Amino acid sequence: MSEPSTEAKVDAAESAALDLANVSDEARSDALHAIADAIEDAEAEILAANEKDVEAGEEKLEAGEYSQALVDRLKLSPSKLESITEMVRSVADQRDPLGETLEARRLDDGLELYKVGVPIGVVATVFESRPDALVQIAALSLKSGNAAILKGGSEASHSNRVLYEVIRDATEGMPEGWAQLIEAREDVDRLLEMDESVDLVMPRGSSAFVQYIQDNTKIPVLGHTEGVCHVYVDSEADLEMAADVAYDAKVQYPAVCNAVETLLVHEAVAEDFLPGMVERYADAGVELRGDERVRDVVDVDAASEADWTQEYGDLVLSMKVVDSLDAAVSHVNANGSKHTESILTEDAERAGDFMRRIDAASVFHNASTRFADGYRYGLGAEVGISTGKIHARGPVGLDGLTTYKYYLEGDGHLVASYAGENPKPFLHEEFDGEWVPGRLADR
User: Fold this and answer.
1) How far apart are CA 360 and CA 337, in angstroms?
2) Pair 117, 25: CB distance under 8 Å
3) Cβ distance 381 to 374 under 8 Å?
4) What confidence tens digit (pLDDT) does each residue in 309-368 have?
5) What pairs with residue 118 in β-bridges?
6) pLDDT grade, residue 381 (50/70/90)?
7) Torsion angle of the four alpha carbons 341, 347, 350, 354, in this order, in degrees rounded to the nearest 10
8) C-beta separation of 341 from 358 below 8 A
9) Mean pLDDT of 214-218
10) Per-residue pLDDT at 440
11) Residue 1: its pLDDT value, please?
12) This prediction's pTM
């Protein structure tokens, strides 16, 4: 039996989306718990498939085609699968975003308007080498009532295929076709042409890749580009705490988009802070690059202009000494990717100044940039981090996968009554109330 075409898969997803939007929260949550149970039961099969991907990745690493960071992102383990199942159950336990009344307004007696949360519809995702991304995206799509088109990287093809099959088989009670897997690169180009059927595309990858998607489709794109994140050690920082946070932000897991790539240090604390920090980074195997003022204090390689806008995704860090908080803000806004930035300071006024002036989806005070994550934010998981400003920003969870529609409940009301000579005035009164079909029928 031949594989269905991309068009057939999208058609199936479009049909399933209409039904999935009306499946109860209890049924969707039960299906998510079934996915978590199925992943646990299929652990050996999943890890065996992942081993094939990792072995192929390591061969390409030796040939210079892959980076170590990519291979690290590719690896699954029993503990990582346990984290994945915890994430799925966390998504299941989130509040239901569908049918929620966001606003209620009384236009006139017996004429009530409700703004109610609904799914987006068919959501297509094209993501990088992390196989856990497939599960995150599928889980969030199901909980939010969206059909999902999933396209992972070819480097994780064995892992993605098994995980998809586990999810599909565990959700047989859901509308058929709610999740679809596409695998060939040419399928993406066909997908991008289907703007009448696909409601949103979410690419996860490099800026060049996201730009390619945006340039080749009429479908709305929720872009997630690089994470060029900064940690700024202020003149009023607690230097011991700052060292711990700066270390965590780079070393805890350097292959992800919320890891710090540039460390900024105020000149007033550079001589006290940098020597110990550099020694600590060096012990962890971090390759360090600094500007001239950094190199006046410590012995590290010279940073180039390109380093200030580089997402390393690895144990590499650029460092710069700045002479003021204003200079730190200017550097971040000029070179950051609007992802996540952090200031380390004991001065609340200076922290507030930095946080208000920085243009980024997340700005932290005395905390590691690694907290920029849907699970850590309590969103259950994330389909990605949006560095744009329209619709969703930062970690995109359930709310980012929903939109709304207006329901108007009336009793034979006519626009003519509110127009022409002596028009009847509108009340336009906000009130607390949940939309219930026909709620005015008994009045």
Assistant:
1) 7
2) no
3) yes
4) 999 988 999 999 999 999 999 999 999 989 999 999 999 999 999 999 999 999 999 999
5) 403
6) confident
7) 10
8) yes
9) 92
10) 64
11) 57
12) 0.81
Q: Which residues contact 327 (CB under 8 A, 6 or more apart)?
A: none
The identity of residue 388, as a single letter, is G
Phi, psi of 329 (to 5 degrees): -60, -45
DSSP designation for 400: G
What ranges make up the beta strands (E) of 306-441? 316-322, 340-344, 362-365, 385-386, 394-395, 402-409, 429-430
CA proximity to 173, closest of 293, 2, 24, 39: 24
CB atoms within 10 A of CB 416: 9
Are 399 and 95 within 8 A, CB to CB?
no
Phi then psi for residue 62, to 5 deg, are: -65, -30
Residue pLDDT, tens place only, 142-176: 999 999 999 988 899 999 999 999 999 999 999 99
**Token pair of 432, please?**
């607390």
pLDDT of 226 strictly over 80 = no
Which helix (H) or strand (E) segment holds residue 112: the answer is strand 111-119
> Which residue(s) pair with 123 in the sheet?
148, 200
Query: What was the pLDDT predicted at 225?
Result: 63
CA-based nearest residue to 341, from 241, 236, 234, 251: 234
Per-residue pLDDT, 441: 53
Radius of gyration in angstroms for the set of CA atoms belonging to the chain, rounded to a whole number: 25
Can you tell me which residue has the tokens 């929720």? 222
Asked if residue 279 lies in contact with residue 273, where contact means CB atoms within 8 angstroms, the answer is no
Return d(Cα 250, Cα 285) in angstroms, integer. 11
3, exposed or middle or buried, with CB in 10 Å at 0-12, 13-18, 19+? exposed
Residue 151, both tokens: 């396209």
Greatest extent of the chain over all pairs of C-alpha atoms, in Å: 82
Q: For residue 16, what are the contacts with CB-CB under 8 A and spacing of at least 6?
A: 147, 174, 175, 176, 177, 178
Query: Cβ distance 117 to 99 under 8 Å?
Result: yes
Which residues have CB under 8 Å from 377's CB, separation 6+? 371, 394, 395, 397
Query: What's the CA angle centered on 242, arms 238 and 244, to 5 degrees?
Result: 125
